[in-house]
Task: structure prediction
Amino acid sequence: MVWWGLFPTTMSLFFNVIFCLFVIILLNRWIKNIQPDWMLTQSELLTIYILLCMGSVVASHDFGQILVPLIGHVSWFETPENEWRDLFFRYMPKWLTIQDKSILEGYYEGESTLYNLARFKAWIPPMLWWTTFIVALLFVMVCINAILRKKWTENEKLAYPIIELPFAMTQDSGTQFFSNRLFWIAFTLVAILNVVNGLSYFIPSIPIIGVRFRNIGYLFTEKPWNALGTVRFSIYPFVIGLGFFMPIDLSFSCWFFFLFRKSQHVLGAILGMRSLPGFPYDRQQSLGAYLGLSIFAVWTSRRYLTRILKHAAVGRSDLDESNEPMRYRNAILGIILGLAYLVGFSYKMGLTIWIAVSFFLIYYFLSIGITRMRAESGAPAHDLHVMGADYTLATFLGTRFLGRQNLTVLSFFFFFNRAHRSHAMPHQLEGFKLAERSGFRSSPLIISIILAIIVGSVSSFWAYAHDSYHFGSGGGFGWEPFRKLQQQMNHPSGPRILESMFIGVGMVFTFVLMLFRMKFFWWPFHAVGYAVSGADDWCMNWLWLSLMVATLIKWVTLKHGGLGVHRRFSPFFLGVILGEFVVGSLWSVYGISANTKIFPF
Result:
């Protein structure tokens, strides 16, 4: 947050959690030599991993780091010039914000301390209220996952590529994994690479190894090719490692559809359509694709979901709940109660009830789509910037229809709608899959996950407030939603027809891709790749080349060696991932301890 260096929670596999797990395993192996009875088992190690993931989600770059700055932003930055007080100050939920500038002065200017009775009294009420909201928001996801787990994990046998590394690290306390020669070769090579690149950041005479942070878009200066804009040309070893475990059609589709999206920009320039603001509406196409994946996932599960609803209603069916995280009836009740609390909370904030219901239905539909794509493909990232449920409502209904009160409340929900890279729901389902794969009961995880959410929420509030009072906050992410809100109120609009149309285009194209995939087994294009490949999104712009390399490596491996060779080389690519994560984390620890920026691997 302070040094703006590494972003561990912007990728699907959190490198800070993997590093913590690595350190714990090293300590566990040391304990084995002293007191074997004290060793942690695989189930205990994986439980720690899951809880660290949940805590990291709540404190993440795309969640807690956005929420905390929202609490005092308007009160501190409103001026006669921006007219925020007249525009929307009166619509602010006072019980969730801090409006006393004497309390906020130290937060924004720094060189102060949080540890003052008056400041504690001001911060504790919004912290506690927002924590209850976060618990309800993420608990509904747990309940949805409890219902979908059997269908996706046991019936469809989705791949869950993201869990390969934590599972391998903890199996037999890592004995077999950490004794593999291929693993150590890869780990050492990538570790050396990142040590050298880290040193080159401080000593410019040391050359950077590899290709990083290059933009080849400047090479295309002539029309229509200059419409390509920014084209990142970067190689990330850990992405190649993750891509090796993705289904090959999915890794191929990610980079293919990125180039396909870029070609739309060129085609638009040729046809003279660049005059349309936003063409070809990359993010809107992605939003439509995410919604399409969600609808398709629910539709193909309709018979299974109907059986569960009947089972919950009558209590008698042939459904086996013995291995489920919770009983289906309890899961449905949890969804109902959780949604009721969220809607009631939103209503107290000032949101119209039917808008609140629509908002959360859209949000959880998107969540199902994101979780499905992670379980099926192991996509290294899924950001979908500023294309959340708040945007969807404003686009289809218009800001004029929503009104100032609703728009103000929706601005506070920006913290879990800005981007979906650190989304909690995929981590929860991956936790249930780890439990099933390693043979321990997932039901005790529910309480542990809730406790991790509470601890993560309170600790992230404390950490961000503590650092801000010490270093000062420039407003952080608070500028994004409230400047947008100012623009919406100064220039209210009706439904945005073109953007709505391209959301529909993305959805229909996704349905076509999925139907072709069901009809033709050889069909190489996957809708998940189309969804995550937005050319205007942050992640795929950086990752497409690494996924192309991973696809080529995996294709050659499978074509000339088969599944046996693929399994034999798996430790090598796990070593690539772990080597980069461990050394990158050590650089991060150094940056924090030395109060300096570091090489962002």
The chain has one domain: 8-44+69-167+243-560.
